[in-house]
Write a structure and sequence with these properties.
It contains seven helices and 15 strands. The protein has about 350 residues and is α/β, with parallel strands linked by helices. The protein has two domains: about 110 residues; about 200 residues, Rossmann fold, CATH 3.40.50. The strands form three sheets. The protein has a six-stranded mixed sheet with strand order 9-8-7-10-11-12, with helices on both faces. A hairpin with a 2-residue loop joins strand 4 and strand 5. The two termini are about 20 Å apart.
Length: about 350
């Protein structure tokens, strides 16, 4: 994947109601790009910054767009190459992806003789989820579940891939991570989603310069047996949450319909444990694509009349287009604006 220079997203200072969004279809196509605004700020002497996400109309994230794929207009006119300056770059480095990997360590897994293979696959996931070039903006926590009420913390949220893999190697069953052989799948999903929502909210409030996004990745080879929570409770928690939820099922004993319902962001199947590493890698790729679909526009505006202005951001790539328009005020704008590096 191509990577763009580091950029900072600034706090949301203008009301969301200022945004109007348009999605333009090709006459002979049924799909398009959507640009979803996420943040906006205005700073002296004349800097306008807008953070946004680009998706396909199908909802799939669109990553690795280049500056040449964007068109910028002020008040309906293309920006002047001589009197204004603009840069649209990936906000990959300012976007922090926090992932909770939730591993089934119930009796069906631990008694299968496949724990070593599971651990190897989980370590591959860590390598894929925390690529060296994005280490500062990717974090993973590892939890397990069995038949107990609570999920078990194996490793706290960290971007230290080596430390996370050592924690995986330390898993031994029976033990504190796997003391009840039945399966509390629904309760575990409910707990994981609630925990990740709280973590993202906390970090977003502490570090307002970045956009935080949470994901839960659930692995299981079976169905809920403990009945500590209902299927509806788990599904409703997933639906209400802003956290992305991916599910990975292995073997033939799990309920595919359940995992598809819980995995609102993606469901992946592995016929057996030899395919589990590949399934985990696909999930990591999906999460990375999401991270790469966030961008920021920095504009050194040439407006100086203390008035409200229209700013249109458009994108065109692979024959598809999309745009949205927002307002900004040029109040007290002066010369000397420099684009952030």
């Amino acid at each position: 994947m191509k990577r763009n220079p580091n950029s900072r997203l600034l706090p949301l200072l203008l009301a969301t109601s200022l945004f109007t969004q348009a999605c333009i279809l090709k006459p002979d196509a049924n799909d398009c790009f959507k640009i979803i605004p996420e943040s906006q700020s205005v700073d002296q002497p004349a800097l306008v910054s807008v953070g946004f996400k680009v998706t396909h109309c199908s909802g799939d994230p669109v990553g690795d767009l280049q500056a040449a794929d964007f068109r910028i207009k002020q008040d309906g006119e293309d920006i002047s190459k001589f009197e204004a300056a603009a840069a649209t770059v990936s906000s990959n480095k300012a976007y922090v992806s926090e992932i909770l990997l939730l591993i089934d360590l119930s009796g069906s897994v631990t008694a299968s003789g496949k724990l070593t293979t599971l651990k190897d696959s989980a370590k591959k996931f860590i390598d894929s989820a925390i690529p060296p070039e994005s280490v500062q903006s990717r974090k993973v926590a590892i939890f397990s579940f069995d038949g107990n009420t609570e999920i078990h913390k194996i490793a706290a949220l960290s971007n230290d891939a080596a430390s996370l893999k050592r924690a995986i190697d330390s898993i031994s069953c029976p033990g504190s991570y796997c003391s009840d052989s039945t399966t509390n799948l629904y309760g575990a999903v409910w707990n994981a989603v609630i925990s990740m929502d709280a973590q993202v909210l906390q970090d977003s409030q502490l570090h307002r310069e970045s956009i935080y996004n949470g994901s839960v990745v659930v692995f299981t080879d079976g169905t809920d047996r403990a009945q500590r929570a209902t299927r509806d409770q788990a599904v409703n928690a997933v639906k209400r949450s802003k956290t992305a939820v991916f599910t990975v099922g292995v073997g033939a004993e799990y309920d595919e319909a359940v995992l598809k319902q819980l995995g609102k962001s993606g469901y992946f199947a592995a016929t057996d444990y030899t395919q589990l590493g590949e399934a985990f890698t696909k999930v990591a790729d999906e999460i990375e694509n999401e991270a790469n679909s966030h961008y920021i526009l920095h504009l050194c505006s040439d407006r100086r009349n203390n008035a409200s202005h229209k700013l249109e951001i458009g994108v065109e790539a692979d024959g598809l287009t999309g745009s949205f328009t927002t307002d900004f005020s040029s109040s007290a704008f002066t010369g000397g604006c420099v684009l952030p590096k």
